[in-house]
Design a protein that fits this description.
The structure is a homodimer of 328-residue chains.
Chain A: H1 12-22, E1 37-40, E2 45-54, H2 66-82, E3 87-97, H3 103-120, E4 125-133, E5 138-146, E6 163-167, H4 172-183, H5 201-211, H6 218-225, E7 230-234, H7 238-249, E8 251-255, H8 264-269, E9 275-280, E10 290-298, E11 304-306, H9 319-322
Parallel strand pairs in A: 3-4, 8-11
Antiparallel strand pairs in A: 2-5, 3-5, 6-9, 6-10, 7-9, 8-10
Helix pairs in contact in A: 1-3, 2-3, 4-5
């Protein structure tokens, strides 16, 4: 199809041009086209993070469209910037793809990147990147952000007496992944395209949370200005990430499962939620979008207690010990 | 070998710990361990770039050690920061690797990253990153830098009458790649390990330039403070990159091949040099490390002239149209 060429039949310049046409206008001092981007950091600090989506362990092309992948690769990085109490300002996108990738795939990915930024972090734009050939489709996104004159909110500041709170959904993305594995594979385990017709509203929501997540990016800055003592992204399951926050702060987090909605098991151990976990002094009103799920107490043997007990369920997701290619 | 476990048999935390032990001490306001790094940008601007090395198109494990790969993945990104007239301050490293990768490979890579920073850009440290499983070993490095109060030096500022100058080697890295393809493949084209015993001193130097490049990173800041009107990294061959600078500036670059050393053909079209190409007002003395190779003239039909003529040789390297997996 000459209408939709393979990237291997195009020059790097042509591919770049097609991508740049899809992205919003640069807001940087120096945007795409030079050796590097130059971004304003008015308060003398920049927040920076990188996260990679890899074909196989992180996504399947039967389940995720190019648009979904662009969206998700932006969203998960925007969430990490938010988790410092910062506002995302720019993405750099390193795209490595097989040379039989269609140009429409690349432009779909660019559309997803742009729309995720516009929707979740208005003002944030793709300001640079890199194109490479690879046997494995890989999207590494670097996100940069600014703090607005405030200090970053770390994982280590939670104090006994603080309220534990979250913004964003817990559990849906993990349920969505389980749904994909349970319902959208052939008999031999191969992923097959999603037919949403047979899904009820809750299942569709779970699938959306997995494939096109909407982390509460703006709640990061609200947490910082609302006095958060600690803040982090919940990406590997609430219990595991709460343990990390508790360990960094030298406290114990006591979580009340009745505050976790109708499916507390998924909320506790789901993974890929990209919710924000925060602690606030009990004297402060919770910022918009946050809800209380527990309290910070003096450090005990356990870093996290659920309803006063050790959590016995699955703790969360480790990409090295948990991923099994044979699963499909 | 339990002495050298596969990363697939370790948890993410164990791999991270082994990497962090190899890297220099963080110099960031917030270094590795939180959701994102926070870096100081004293003059209110940050320079940011990303470049990816992919197993296959960008390197072969028969030819490059883990240390070489760490070194090169840092070096090529440090060069892009230098090419803005900036000083590199931090790297973020997104590492995607097969789960049968040995831990010693990961630590070797970390050693190479650290030593390249220490040698080429003292003060620059790996301040964050990401680990993922992938069928294809992929190293995406984001480099960040600061401008020291000066404006960035773009590709677009060259003016007729300026001197064209370069810092760093031109041609050796391309010759080194040709040497690998010519001498270190088996009969069926498979790369075989390099035996340096049969190489003369010049060939060893070429190989080093290809596998462990030493771009003149500190010359970037010297160019900026020395009045450079335009500056860029030469990564795809001098003629191709000079064309880009000429087009961005709306001028023609007239290059004198007698200034290009003993192998002008390689210097003009080599690729992966990571030299710095700059233009300076003729009234200024060239900063340390730069040598004149020509002059900027009013724009003509050709963007680049070599000894007054159109360059007829190979122009440079395009990762999409030039890469052929079947080559070996």
């Amino acid at each position: 199809m000459t209408d939709d060429p393979r990237v291997g039949d195009l020059g790097e310049g042509q591919i770049l041009q097609a991508i740049l046409a899809r992205l919003g206008e640069s807001r940087a001092e120096v945007g795409p086209g030079d050796d590097a981007a130059v971004l304003a950091t008015p308060d003398g600090a920049v927040v920076a993070t990188v996260d990679t989506l890899v074909h196989g362990p992180d996504f399947r092309l039967a389940w995720s469209s190019a648009y979904d992948l662009g969206w998700k690769s932006a969203a998960v990085n925007l969430a990490d910037i938010a988790a410092m109490g910062a506002r995302p300002t720019a993405l750099l996108v390193a795209l490595a793809m097989p040379d039989d990738t269609r140009l429409s795939f690349v432009t779909g990915l660019a559309d997803g990147l742009r729309d995720a930024c516009d929707s979740l972090a208005p003002g944030c734009v793709v300001e640079g990147g890199d194109l490479t050939v690879s046997d494995t489709l890989t999207i590494a996104v670097t996100a940069l952000g600014v703090l607005g004159g405030r200090p970053a909110v770390l994982r280590s500041g939670a104090r006994p007496g603080d309220v534990v709170a979250v913004a964003g959904d817990l559990g849906a993305a993990g349920r969505g992944l389980a749904l994909l594995f349970a319902r959208f594979r052939s008999d031999d385990g191969t992923p097959v395209p999603v037919d949403a017709d047979g899904l009820d509203r809750g299942e569709r929501r779970d699938l959306d949370a997995q494939l096109r997540p909407e982390p509460p990016v703006r709640a990061g800055e609200r947490a910082a200005s609302g006095g958060a003592t600690a803040l982090m992204d919940v990406s590997d399951g609430l219990v595991l990430d709460a343990t990390r926050l508790a360990d960094a702060s030298g406290v114990t987090l006591a979580i009340d499962s009745s505050s976790l909605g109708g499916d507390p098991a998924s909320a506790l151990s789901g993974g890929e939620d990209h919710a924000l976990l925060a602690t606030f002094p009990s004297s402060r009103a919770l910022p918009d979008g946050f809800r209380a799920i527990g309290a910070v107490v003096e450090r005990m043997a356990e870093a996290v207690l659920v309803d006063g007990h050790t959590h016995e369920g699955r703790g969360g997701w480790d990409p090295y010990s948990d991923w099994d290619a044979a699963r499909g």
